[in-house]
Amino acid sequence: MIITQLKSAGGRRLACAFFCSFILIAGGCSTYQYPHALSPEAQRHHLTEVPFFAQEEYQCGPAALAMLLAWNGQDVSLPQLVEQVYSPELKGSLQPSIVAAARRQGYLAYPLSGWSELVAELHGGQPVMILQNLGLSWYPRWHYAVVIGYDQGEQKVLLHSGVYPGMQMSMGVFERTWRRADYWGLVVVPPAVLPGSATETAYLTAVVGLERARQFSAAATAYLTATKAWPDSFVAWIGAGNSSYQAGDTATAIRSFRQAAALQPDNGIPLNNLALVLAQAGRAEEALTVIDQAIAQGGDLQEVFRQTRQKIVADTVPAE
Amino acid sequence: MKKHMVRYVGKPLCLLLAVCFLTVDVGIRTAQAGMISTETVLATQADEDARTQVSAFFAREDVQQVMTRQGVAADEVASRVASLSDAEVMRIANELDQLPAGASLGTVVGAVLFIFVVLLVTDILGYTKVFTFVQPIR
Question: pTM value?
Answer without folding.
Answer: 0.75
